[in-house]
Amino acid sequence: MAESTQAYVPPEPLHHGQLLMGTLVLSLATFMNVLDSSIANVSIPAIAGDFGVSPNQGTWVITSFAVSNAISVPLTGWLAQRFGMVRLFTLSVALFVLASVLCGMAPNLGMLIVFRVIQGLVAGPMIPLSQSLLLQSYPKQKAGMALAIWSMTTLVAPVMGPLLGGWITDNMSWPWIFYINVPVGLFAALVTWNIYQTRETPTRKLPIDSVGLASLVVWVGALQIMLDKGKELDWFASTEIIILALIALFGFVFFLIWELTEQHPVVDLTLFARRNFWVGTLALSLGYGAFFGNVVLLPLWLQQYMGYTATWAGIVLAPVGLLAILFSPYVGKTTHNTDPRLYASIAFVTFGLVLWLRSQFNTEADLATLMIPTLVQGVAMAFFFIPLVTITLSGLSPERIPAASGLSNFARITAGAFGTSIATTLWESRAALHHEQLSVAINNASIPAQQALTNFSMQGLSREQSMFYLNRLIDQQAFMLSASDIFAASAVLFISLIAIVWLARPVSSARVDAGGAH
């Protein structure tokens, strides 16, 4: 592999059929990657049953992928300089396909976890590089359209994952949640290499920052395991969680000091010196964390306390794509002449409205009532990713975009993990509080409670069965009230993000600049 010595000149944009196919395969690869982060969620009981392990042990199928993926995403910039964007992306997709096959063929849980770790590691560069290659494929004035297409795959896939995973597990068998990657991945890899091999970026033989890489593995791994196991082990009441938190904290501090003083850092933290990068990354991460936490919470509530199956919970979430598909092309076309801070504000206000509507739900809510906020949320999704990525990557030279994209995506993925843990933990703790408050009313002096117990008795239930059924009704109300609390708090968070996004400097022509850095 020859090392480039000449100044890098970005290739001309793609045209016609090549642009269409390039966009399609890059989006497919991204969709496949993001889908795999959530598709296994509803299949854990089936996987655990097949291997004869507990569902809690089965959750390592999710955790192992998340940990290894979070570690490899911020390495994208260094790897792209070492091997070239096109080679790295194509190899990443091909190895992802191979890892998917191995996951489906795993003979036991231990081997499945090993293959999921490999799958997460090779998947890391795919999302940042698909973003970078798309921006390279379009004229600068159409960068917004490229980001619109990219954002659709990134936001719709987590919603589709549980629905598709549930259907495959119910109607086929769980290994097929991995095997479906094979035709998609092979097609994406072959077409990508055919179109982009002549558009390779320059490479440099950079030394390996082994200390920085090791510290990254340690603190990210400890943080992800802490987030995944925290709820199960009662958080900081557990010595294990305290130890993991200390490892993550001290590892993170050491990582910061080392990377800021290392001549060839594995992660370019100097990007945070740019105001638009840190403002865009912060707003994107906080918004995505709140979004993802609520995406996980809503189907959990529907399935556990509203009597919905996995498929019907997925149907409630499905309409989110309708308005997103309708509005994303408009946002993409107009981003070059509209202040992206304004578009991001529209997204935050709409997210706030959606979550306020959900905070008004009760246990009598019908399907239409549940689906209306989901439909409106499509507008927020269309206005969310494109302007924030535009702000984050504005003014960066082409060779820095993979590193910037990798770092901002790492922050977003980590925030999504935080959002999930915080939402589910608060949901249970607030539900316990509401349950206690509601239970106070269940006593011998409570006429409604005595009437309910009498009705249960007339239906042939024993006293113990009646009390159990009454407790279940209290649980249903408690978890509904708890979900409403979290929806309302998330609405406030989204409205507050408007103030953060306006800290960014105005973006010249409101587009990602593929030219020189400022």
Features of the shown structure:
single chain, 518 residues, mainly alpha, Growth Hormone, Chain: A, 3 domains, 21 helices, disordered C terminus
Question: What's a concise summary of this model?
Answer:
By secondary structure, the chain is an all-alpha fold. The protein is built from 21 helices and no strands.
Layout of helices and strands:
Elements: H1 16-38, H2 44-51, H3 55-58, H4 60-72, H5 76-83, H6 85-105, H7 109-123, H8 126-137, H9 143-171, H10 176-179, H11 181-196, H12 210-229, H13 239-261, H14 275-305, H15 310-317, H16 320-334, H17 340-359, H18 367-393, H19 401-439, H20 447-458, H21 463-501
Give a structural overview.
There is one protein chain. This protein is an all-alpha fold. It folds into three domains: 12-197, Growth Hormone, Chain: A, CATH 1.20.1250.20; 209-265; 268-518, Growth Hormone, Chain: A (Up-down Bundle), CATH 1.20.1250.20. It is 75% helix and 0% strand. The chain has 21 helices and no strands. The longest helix has 39 residues, at 401-439. The protein is globular. Mean pLDDT is 83; it is low at 510-518.
